[in-house]
Task: structure prediction
Amino acid sequence: MLTISETKPSANPIANFFRGRLWRRLSKRKSALVGLVVVLLMVFVAVFAPLLAPYDPAAQSWTAVRKAPSMAHWLGTDEAGRDMLSRIIWGARASLMAGLTSVGIAMAIGVPLGLAAGFLGGIVDGLISRFTDAMLACPFLILAIAFAAFLGPSLTNAMLAIGITAMPLFIRLTRGQVLSIKAEEYIEAASAVGNPQWRIAVRHILPNILPQLMVQATLTIASAIIAEASMSFLGLGLQPPAPSWGSMLNSAQRFLGNAPWMALWSGMAIFMTVLSFNLLGDGLRDALDPRSR
Amino acid sequence: MSTSQNTLENQSARSVRADDASASVLDVKNLRVIFEGDTHTVTAVDGVSFSVKKGRTLAIVGESGSGKSVTSLAVMRLLPEHSARIFGSVSFDGRQLLDETKIGMRSLRGNRLAMIFQEPMTSLNPSYTIGEQIIEVILRHRQMSKKEATERAIAMLKLVRIPSPETRYYQYPHNLSGGMRQRVMIAMALACDPELLIADEPTTALDVTIQAQVLELMRELQQKTGTAIVLITHDLGVVAEACDDVIVMYAGQVVEQCSVEELFTFPQHPYTVGLLGSLPRLDEKRERLVAITGTVPDMANPPPGCRFQARCPFRVEECAEMPELMEVSAGHSSRCWRAPMEDLVP
Result:
């Protein structure tokens, strides 16, 4: 008579609470945990930059130009005698801000548009999809640079440009996922219990595409950080003397031969952050999939 | 079918109860559903009429593509509006469903009209616990606090005999087996005490032992609540086990309409006879099951006259003209020129 389920039911409802469950599953994945720890560390560093940095990141010292790492300057100094460690710490602000804000912008516009396109279909879908195709036809970085050049060089404009450029990724992903979820029987069942259409879209379809969106978001944060670094490298992002990992790389390239640490630290910082966001993204994808156990 | 003997006894026991049941809960008259494609139109349901009384179960039987699911979706108004056009009259408790506004339909669906789908594995949303999904229906249609709704949901889970419902309430659909999920679907469908339950092949995806449990459960709950049930199926075994009245559909039309007892003892349409002949039986020795030769006609371009004639072993000249659904005896109609016939018994 009774069918025994293979999984042991948890007696405590709180343990089944979304965050608790997500955490339990995420913590089983070592690489995701490493990613999470590094990301949290970067956030911590960015938030408390003024307290953590041993020197003023913009203070120049002509007696300590391009010094190799030492006790006084742990990561060495750059071509104007500025402390590399302080600049890396302050640079985390620009990079994380650029990553989070631009992806925030991209999702805030892209997800509703994708949801509308996939759910409503017809002419709405036609218009949104053609627009998306047109934007995706241009290479990501080129388009972002074009926007940033148009808006003028500043960190805010760079973030805006990256956000707008990343938006079609989210439109396309959301639309595709909505189309596949919309065909599921539980969506028909949701209309059969009297749910209005908007509620089906927001309450029944959206949660089922969140895992994919989360993964795309973490991966896009990584590309956005690179894009911001590239733009700063080209002089379109954060303006000197404010430190950004990209602009630091830019100035370091002229001294690769005699002061390689200048490029190493900023490159490592970018690499580590991007890698940990990617690891976190992969881990989240597995942990958020309700079917995986 | 081994169960048909005691099923028939159940039938007569239940028809006594049904006699005092009042007017029909659902009255469908001359329902037509036309799908408009870019190149051609298909009349998927062509003049179907039936009614279901309180506490009774009506079976809609037919093979794939006979229009049985479309009929049920038309009643629920769940067909895509841009491609499906619905004509006729669907009256539910005196309300014309085809004239209802969207908001009016939404307040009925899940509340007074409920539906169970074929695939229990995919009919529940994987992102929510089963409890969340049941209370959503309750909160949507009843003025209740979340706590009361939770209690009601757990009571419903208990009613459909889910073991340890307090624990299951917090589990996700993937933690449950197919039979349990179908029970959850039934609990969800019955959560607001609907007057009418449409079950579209509710047991097709389940294995036979679970099928019997689910059918028994539905019958038991029907006796408690008096819900009218429309059971869509292609399985005559299910019909014998669970239903009071039957309509047999073929190519979008009703070809025979009668009580379950009549269907199994005096079938009056060659198609029904063919369906019964293709059932395995224990009381007769047969070398092979008899299949109905040929396939369902192309509905975009149905042949003139009787739609079954190409496959019919009893074909006569009149069949070139479409027969009407005619009463052959009290409460028994058939769409066949040759009905009533004595020699159609399979």
About this structure: The longest helix of chain A spans residues 197-234. Residues 1-18 of chain A have pLDDT under 50 and may be disordered.
